[in-house]
Design brief:
This protein is an alpha/beta fold and about 375 residues long. It has a domain of about 140 residues. Helix content is about 35%, strand content about 15%. The protein is built from eleven helices and 13 strands. The longest helix is centred in the last third of the chain and has 25 residues.
Length: about 375
C-alpha cells in the first residue's frame, strides 16, 4: 500500500508491479499505490489516505529478518522473535487487569500472547451482553438469582484463599474473574455506549465493541485483524480486495472512536507479519519477503510523515537514528527499534515490565514530537 514501485522497476522476476510509476499517488507526504489495470476495487486506499493522511505515520523498510509467519507475527506484535515475549497490548493492559472486566480484548489480529500478565477477553455480541445485563430474564426468581450470585462469590473467595503464594498467574486470573463477575452491573453502561441501530457485523461489530469498551473503562487495549493477505497466486486481485476490506474496517474503528470521544486518546498500530516479494511468481502471486511496513495513527503520533524506505530490490534503507532521514551510514529499522519507541511513548520504558522483557537492538527516536 505505502511503499509503491512501478512496472519500470525491474526485479529478478520481471516488473515490480503492474502499474506505471507515474501513476503512483501522493497526499501530503504519504505515497500510495494506484489500482492496477483490470483489478476490481472500491479504492478504499485512496479514500482512506485522503481522509486520514494527517494522522498517518508510515514506516517503510522494516527489516523483519524472517520469512516465517509465526516468527514474523511475533516480531510485528512484540518487537522480538522470542516466544516468551508478550504483546505490547497485553503489557499495557496488565496494570488494569484487576480493575477492568476486559482489560485486553482480542478480536483476531494474528498474535495475542499475553505471557500470563492479563487475561485475554474475546468479544461477545451485543445480545450476549444483554443477557449479562438482564439475568432476571433467564432466572424468574430473585431469590434463586441472589443465591447463585452468593455461591459464585463464596467459591471465588475460597479459591483465592487456597491459592499458594507462588501460583501468581493462577491467582491473577482468578482475581480478574472475580472482578468481572462483580462488574455485571456495568454492562448497561457498555451497551449504552454502542451505536444505536447499527447494521455492522463481523469485524466492524468488533470495532464498535472495542470503542465502547475503551470509552466506558471496560478495556485498555485490543487487537483487531483479519487474514487473507498471503497471496501466493492472483496477488493483485486478492490483495486489493482485502485492502478494501481492511481499510474500511479501520475507517469504521476511527469513526467509532470519534463518536465516543476518545479518538484523541487512542493510538492505532497497523501491522502485518511480513511483506511480499518483488515481482510475480508463475501464478501471478507474490511470496514471503522479509522487508515490511507499519502505519501508526492517533495519540502520540506525528501524522503526514513517512520514515524509512527501500531500494529497487525492496531491501531496507538505513536511517539516521536521530534525524530519521535516510542515511547510508545510519542503522536499519527493526521491529525491536519500533517497539522500544512505542514502549517509551506509552510510558512503560524503564519500568518493571520493560526490564523484565528486554528488547535487543538499537533505539530509534521515532515518536518525539
Amino acid at each position: 500500500m505505502f511503499d509503491p514501485k512501478g512496472a519500470d522497476v525491474e526485479t529478478y522476476r520481471g516488473p515490480m508491479n503492474r502499474y506505471a510509476s507515474n501513476a503512483i499517488r501522493q497526499k501530503g507526504k504519504i505515497r500510495y499505490a494506484p489500482i492496477p489495470q483490470g483489478v476490481e476495487s472500491s479504492d478504499q486506499l485512496d479514500k482512506f489516505v485522503q481522509k486520514y493522511y494527517r494522522k498517518m505515520m508510515v514506516i517503510n523498510g522494516i527489516n523483519q529478518a524472517t520469512n516465517s509467519h509465526s516468527v514474523g507475527a511475533r516480531l510485528s506484535y512484540t518487537g522480538s522473535q522470542s516466544s516468551a515475549m508478550p504483546t505490547l497490548p497485553a503489557m499495557l493492559a496488565s496494570p488494569y487487569a484487576d480493575s477492568q472486566p476486559m482489560a485486553f480484548i482480542t478480536a483476531g489480529g494474528g498474535y495475542n500472547f499475553s505471557g500470563g500478565l492479563v487475561a485475554k477477553s474475546q468479544l461477545l455480541d451485543d445480545s450476549q451482553f444483554n443477557a449479562l445485563a438482564n439475568p432476571d430474564k433467564y432466572l424468574n426468581s430473585d431469590a434463586v438469582n441472589g443465591l447463585l450470585n452468593s455461591q459464585k462469590q463464596q467459591q471465588l473467595q475460597r479459591l483465592l484463599a487456597d491459592t499458594p503464594d507462588n501460583a501468581i498467574h493462577r491467582l491473577l486470573a482468578m482475581r480478574q474473574l472475580h472482578d468481572a463477575r462483580r462488574a455485571d452491573a456495568g454492562v448497561d453502561k457498555l451497551l449504552n455506549a454502542l451505536p444505536q441501530d447499527s447494521e455492522a457485523s463481523g469485524s466492524k461489530e468488533d470495532a464498535e465493541m472495542i470503542a465502547a469498551a475503551f470509552a466506558t473503562g471496560w478495556a485498555t487495549t485490543a487487537t483487531l485483524g483479519m487474514g487473507g493477505f498471503d497471496t501466493h497466486n492472483d496477488s493483485d486481485n486478492r490483495q486489493f480486495k482485502k485492502i478494501d476490506e481492511l481499510l474500511s474496517l479501520v475507517d469504521h474503528l476511527w469513526q467509532e472512536l470519534e463518536r465516543v470521544n476518545i479518538a484523541d486518546k487512542t493510538t492505532v498500530v497497523l501491522v502485518s507479519d511480513m511483506g511480499r516479494t518483488p515481482g510475480y511468481n508463475s501464478r501471478d502471486g507474490k511470496d514471503h519477503w522479509p522487508t515490511n511496513s507499519m502505519v501508526l495513527m492517533g495519540a502520540g503520533i506525528e501524522g503526514n510523515r513517512t520514515i524509512g524506505g527501500t531500494d529497487d530490490a525492496l531491501r531496507p534503507k538505513k536511517v539516521n537514528a536521530h534525524t530519521l532521514q535516510l542515511d547510508e551510514d545510519g542503522i536499519e529499522i527493526t521491529p525491536a527499534a519500533i517497539y522500544k519507541g512505542l514502549r517509551r511513548l506509552s510510558g512503560i520504558d524503564g519500568g518493571f515490565l520493560d526490564r523484565q522483557y528486554v528488547l535487543d537492538g538499537d533505539y530509534i527516536d521515532l515518536f518525539s514530537l
